[in-house]
Amino acid sequence: MNDLKQYLTARRSAIDAALLAALPGPPACPANLADAMRYSIVAGGKRLRPILCLASAEAVGGDSALAMPAACALEFIHTYSLIHDDLPAMDNDTLRRGQPTLHVVAGEGMAILAGDGLLTEAFALMAREPRGDDSSLVARKARVIGIVAAGAGTAGMVGGQAIDLTGGPLDADGLRGMHARKTGALIRASATAGAVMGGGTDGQIEAIDRAASEFGLAFQIIDDVLDVEGASAELGKTAGKDAAAGKSTYPALYGLDISKRMASECLDRAAAALASMNLADSRLLQIGRWIVERSN
Ligand code: GRG
User: Fold this and answer.
1) Cis (ω within 30 of 0) for the bond into 27?
2) How many other β-carbons are positioned within 10 Å of the β-carbon of residue 74?
3) C-beta 96 within 6 A of ligand 1
4) Model-wide pTM > 0.85
């Protein structure tokens, strides 16, 4: 576990440096917009999606440096989704990543634009980098742009948010389907994008996709558990909001103990998927365990 901690710390500092370098700045980007985008990116966060992206590239024997632009793009998109989700028109939250939300400090209009900027710059970054006209690299980049667009778009995260916004109680299948889109799709895209940039075979990419889909479900189950058991200070966001809003959650449908067991069963299925392509000894399963054992 200590070894994983060191791995996560090293990856986070490389990702943080790459994110700062990738953020647009003046004069091309107006200073107030650049400041707003930077505020939400440097506020922190676990960097789960970029870490998964890099670890997947490594798992298939690839060079993780080739996956770094996609890793940063995924964190840009994730951060945009949090900024927009926190807006008064959506979840109306005032605390995120332990800081006041962006619309509280910069105003709603600027928060909307910062989210728009991060989303758009994510695709510009993946189109631009890694540089080079080698045909295999160009083909991988194009495939990854499609994967990330599908995960972030209407069949993925944005579609899931629309289902959530529609409201109303969801049964077990409905809840699972909503989360598979809203949070699972970007987590899957993070892992598969890394595997593609790392030059994985179709079999490896498919196994990593199946494992990441289990990680996504486990992530959401634990997110719901932490909303019940966690403290706002440690979570860096408002705890207890789901119950207060009367939302369908895993603990509400199954209780806390069964929810936790379901999350650990996701890890068993992920392990089987990875083992089918001899990927069980990679970092990916350790990252899955971290998702389930985390406290924020
Ligand atoms: C507004 C288009 C649009 C989409 C929003 C993902 C999402 C869709 C909203 C976030 C709402 C939310 C809190 C969902 C629960 C799961 C989740 C994505 C938690 C935050 O992700 P973490 O824990 O955050 O990876 P950090 O800050 O660590 O990066």
Assistant:
1) yes
2) 30
3) no
4) yes
- Does the domain at 2-293 match CATH 1.10.600.10? Answer given as yes
226 close to 251: Cβ distance less than 8 angstroms = no
* pLDDT tens digits, one per residue of 77-108: 999 999 999 999 999 999 998 999 999 999 99
- How distant, in Å, are the alpha carbons of 114, 187, 225, 230, 234 from that of 239? 25, 22, 10, 6, 9
Give the C-alpha separation, 55 to 89, whole Å.
36
Q: Which of 153, 130, 149 is nearest to 199 (CA)?
A: 130
Residue 92 has a CB neighbour count (10 Å cut-off) of 12
- The full DSSP string for 31-76 is HHHHHHHHHHHHT----HHHHHHHHHHHHTT--GGGGHHHHHHHHH
- pLDDT tens by residue, 196-243: 999 999 999 999 999 999 999 999 999 999 999 876 656 566 666 666
Give me the residue spans of the domains in the chain. Answer: 2-293
Residue 282 CB less than 6 A away from ligand 1: no
Task: Give distance in angstroms: CA of 96 to centre of ligand 1.
Answer: 10
Helices vs strands, H then E, count in the chain = 16, 2
- Ligand 1, atom 4, residue with closest C-alpha: 81
Which atom belonging to ligand 1 lies closest to the Cα atom of 83?
1
Residues with Cβ within 8 Å of 178's Cβ and at least 6 positions away in sequence, in order, are 160, 163, 164, 170
Look at the block and give the residue holding tokens 């109680």.
Answer: 169
Ranges in the chain, pLDDT < 70: 1-2, 231-244
Closest residue by CA, ligand 1 atom 2: 158
87 in Cβ contact with 107 (< 8 Å): no
Q: Determine the distance separating the centroid of ligand 1 and the alpha carbon of 216, expressed in angstroms.
A: 12
How many CA within 13 A on the CB side of residue 68? 19
